Amino acid sequence: MELIKLTIDNRPVEVEKGTTVYHAAKKLDIEIPTLCYMNLADLKIEHKPGGCRVCVVEVEGRRNLAPSCATECHDGMVVKTNSMRVLNSRRTVLELILSDHPFDCLICAKSGNCDLQNMAIKMGVRSIPFQGEKSTYKPDYSPAIIREMDKCIMCRRCETMCNDFQTVGVLSGINRGFEAVVAPAFERDLDHSECTYCGQCVAVCPTGALTEVDHTPQVIRALADTAKTVVVQTAPAVRAALGEEFGMEPGTLVTGKLAAALRRLGFDYVFDTDFAADLTIMEEGTELLDRLGRFLGGDKSVKLPMLTSCCPGWVNFFEYYYPDMLDIPSTARSPQQMFGSIAKSYFADKIKVERKDMVVVSIMPCVAKKYEASREEFKVDGNPDVDFSISTRELAALIKGANIDFKSLPDEDFDKPLGESTGAAVIFGVTGGVIEAAVRTAYELHTKKTLDKVDFKQLRGLEGIRSASVDFNGVEIKIGIAHGLGNARKLLDDIKAGKSHYHAIEIMACPSGCIGGGGQPLHHGDSSVLKARHKAIYSEDEMKVLRKSHENPYILKLYEEFLGKPMSEKAHHLLHTHYFAKKLRHIDID
Amino acid sequence: MAKYKMHMLVCGGTGCRASASDMLYENLKKEVQEQGLDNEVQVVTTGCFGFCEQGPIVKMIPDNTFYVGVQPKDAAEIVAEHALKGRKVGRLLYKDPVKKEQIPDSKHMGFYKKQIRIALRNCGLIDPENINEYLAADGYEALGMVLLEMTPETAIKEVIDSGLRGRGGGGFPTGVKWKIAHDVKGEQKYVVCNADEGDPGAFMDRSILEGDPHCVLEAMAINGFCIGATKGLIYIRAEYPLAITRLKIAIEQAREYGLLGKDILGSGFDFDVELRYGAGAFVCGEETALIRSMEGHRGEPTFKPPFPAQSGYLGMPTNVNNVETYANIPVIINKGAKWFASIGTEKSKGTKVFALAGKINNVGLIEVPMGITLREVIFEIGGGIKGGKKFKAVQTGGPSGGCLTEKHLDTPIDYDNLLAVGSMMGSGGMIVMDEDDCMVSVSKFYLDFTVEESCGKCSPCRIGNKRLYEILDKITKGQGSMEDLDKLRNLSNVIKDTSLCGLGQTSPNPVLSTLDNFYDEYVAHVTEEKCFAGQCKDLIKYEIIPENCVGCTACARNCPVNCISGERKQVHLIDQSLCIKCGACLEKCKFNAVTII
Amino acid sequence: MTSVKLKLKENDVQKIKEICKSFNNEPGELINVLHKTQEHFGYLPAEVQEEVAEGLGISVAKVYGVVTFYSFFTMLPKGRFPISICTGTACYVRGAEKVLDEFKRILKVPVGETTPDGKFSITCLRCVGACGLAPVVMVGDKTYGRVTTDGVKDILKEYENE
User: Fold this and answer.
1) Catalytic residue (choose from A372, A436, A506, A540)
2) Which residues on B lie below 8 Å from C71 (Cβ)?
3) Which of A284, A444, B79, B491 is the most buried (most CB within 10 A)?
4) What percentage of chain B exceeds 90 in pLDDT?
């Protein structure tokens, strides 16, 4: 690769040809501010519209200022990133953006975590010289995501995630000029669109325009209600990221502190979604073996590949886009929902609490889980299996609000019986983890042999679509894995065209799996954060003694005492579901 | 084939058509037939003659009689008198406003004397719907020469040596642009003609496309050969239906004659042209936005580099040029670069088409050599200020340009000179303003346009221009402050310095040039809350001068809000609390009794 | 953008499919498809946009984003006599703003909308290119030149009994 030399702020730097000024500056530890540029290098997502004009720099010989994110270095280039001309322009551009922005910081969900606010603080803005019309839009409250477009700065990151990466295509820039904004078709609300609530738009929004619905008030009310037994479950991906909200390094496992914090918040029972993940494997693994068995035995009516179904964003996606293929995903519910179902039946019975007096709260890296919890089929006589799902960020807010010093908490364990889990459960949090967990169990159940190595490295990695095969005693089982709905679509289109040769496919809607979920601590465009969380998840798996779901003694007890066996009628009733074809046409609405 | 003794050329440009020139054409044809002259006299619709103020135009060949303001009902007289008896119809001849004498031949008219029509060479001469007429006017000779006697490199050199610069406004050397596209490797290259003439008040490209569509097709084919492109696209405004029709006809005819399509003239070179339609977005005149629009997207520009020559339509090397730029190409090849370079100034060769409009006597389309002064254009060709009023300013470059004043009138027109005095060439719109035009209002008008047309992608243009407009609006309402004037300047400079595309980068020009040249007017609006030009509604009053009012009641009868009171033969009075400042009373008063203060 | 609902008949849906097919169902031809579709229906209500999206295999949001970007496309039916007032510089300098205000005042509709009886709609045009006749107003295909504030009511009178 050709190397070129340039000067930035009087400092020399050498870079490969094709590098932009922004990245060349980074090499010198010069962080040029930006609001729209986003480079998730590890996921190969680069969003570079060159629209915010905040990252502009002075380039000798160029008439006007250049956007550093979109300007390639040339040999001998002389760049100034903080001359008075640049600073004046940058500040004016920021003032313009602020002149069209509500001053809601005191009550904005993004306060303290907002790229725009941080920039205003850094530049010391004390007044806005431009008073004028402000864009106002009706706020949009959906079950999972809130859109407050008054706060939109037209960075278009959400558009890129929704259209290019997720290929859901709900969002687009509309109108022109000052009235331009990002919205669904016809400016309908999200819950009248094909939004899957994957939350990737929320994950990348630099301001408070896109945030998750806040369920913490409801959780606090439940905790304060002495008549209620409040049970909490927490997803695998949470423990690998929660620490970041308290200043810890990305990738720090905080499982023990997480349990301790939940206890101190006042939850009556601190359980683990991982328990239900093991349960999911029992059900889904059995379902997979059943289908595989019949298929390999020559039954032409069996639909393969089987698709995982624990990701609610993914479920919404195939209900909208593949409504004629609703019989191929697994019928197993997600761990969140299985947990709720078991908590309000099996566990409620055990502690002799009535269903109506139990409140199940889940801590999820996800915003789609909020929608999932509200689905009608996951309620019994109107009472939901999971009452409230809150995100990792909301939990952090609760902990901070309760004046708990998270970092100094001791490590504690989850309560039993719904708190015990295996390593197979924790890897649900990453792409490839669900299917690896399923394989660990399916292999042993089918071959009746014990695995000498439980690590299936061929299923791991961060490439968007991966293919692997696992040898089930001479039978080659072909497995497909995708994360990101755009990648999922490719696999689904292959199935539709009859070109798919997989037996099982794992899909996660979010990049790198749940650890990259819409409810996680914001990565602010740094994909190395996701890589660190990815590593942490696998290390927790390795540290566990029990690493296969079917070895979880509490799971075995649950079947023995309550469910009978996987796919039993009771299991079907409580732990399985079916799907609904969704289609939106203007004529059906309003 | 009949050999005609006489041709009647009827202007078929949109302006004249709006005054029923198509009916005039039909009537002339009918009359010629009825008089049994259809073997001797041919009636032809041509493109725009340029003298729009005096339209509809009919020109007689071979004696070059130039009739103006011809109505459909005049057809009979023209045929009876001029065709049959050889006698000119005096009342339809152009009368010089100053010398008051009739001028039958356009060569001697003040409007035409200093013009050199190169890009417009065929407009008003040939029937644009007949390829044979184009061929007879040396049409497609250049293409033949290039394909059969030149190489891409020699042809590009000719264009470089001619000194031709982009006529769309950017002024980039055309030959150099072609060379860059030629040098880039690509499996499929494209040639794009930018016919999205969006500057309000500009109709140069429209006239060329309506009057001489083939010259653009020929030039695009030459361009294709030079850079190695086999596909041409013309991006044309949806608001130009006549131009679209004429282009479609031209493309069909060219294909029929093998001048477009496969193996043109047996050279082995394939080239064909398709039309793409704009949909009402000024920003799509910017080449990267144009390309995005052709690809089926919102017309949001992309940053440059990469330039379209490197990565354009569908990511392929693309050369984009303006209609007028293309119109010059065939004649450069035919007559040579040296000839073209002999016209114009040192750095700006050739001619420029301008759409001269505003408070001027001779509104119309003109083509002048680079280097001619603004004074010559406005006062000689333009015939001076309408109604004998005082010249105040001339705007060139549309919403991207600046207002030049009295002191700039002797500036020789070329790309660099206009930039140096705070304006720019632009695509060719030239609007003349007089003492009744308020420069703050003009500035606000242009910003209103920019705010409407901004695509919204980048912050400085989307929000900055809106804020500029709001400040100007405040000033026109007497609510501005001196601080606002500083804000206007600073904000304008930042918008220019940081905007993503040419639209934003030039949108503050009207503000900056009027602040520079008419600062006193701004100050008057701010400190005295006065609009001396009498335009800003909130700062003016319509009043009746008692001494001049005879009580004819014309004003009161025509007032849309009934705010004028007065008996017959008594002095009338305007109720200021109801007056909406529409100006109808001023229009109607024949006694100079209504004034603006 | 405000809009008017429309229930599509089977042959309407077929027509849209045909138009998309005539452009090879290419997503890049969206603007050409919208032109042809608007030509046929007179405007582009949501139902039509949904069919176009389906025909070209793109998202409805994308179609809406393009429709709302370009001034030529409308989601509201135009009046039987669409009035276009040229507000280009040449016409502006010759008083087009006052003419526009007068139309708005008499018809009581803002720019971009249609009178309740569906007769007239007002839009602004940027330069018809008949600057010699400034200010210019078009009603349907008919062009009126040198329009004065006074003359507005006379123009409207021509369509009184239509």
Assistant:
1) A372
2) 279-281
3) A284
4) 80
